[in-house]
Model the fold of this input.
Amino acid sequence: MHASISRNEPWPVTLEEIPNWTVPLQRWVFGKLEIRLAIDWNTWLVGAGMADPHDWGLHCGPLNLQFEYNKRYADDR
Done:
């Protein structure tokens, strides 16, 4: 469940046109669990979200805490 406010804008022609205003603050890896703390100025949400059973997020405004299990945890991002 989450609450959001959005405005309608035309989709960009290419993905490179989308500005990336995400500021990573911290990243922790415990085995196959990856936890990331970031500020995402593109997305302001309040609540919890689940992209899939292995990808959860807690949101408070632009502050974002992501929990991913068994997904790209070995990548240095």
Q: What stands out?
A: Strands lie at 2-4, 22-30, 33-40, 45-52, 55-61, 63-69. The two ends are 28 Å apart (CA to CA).
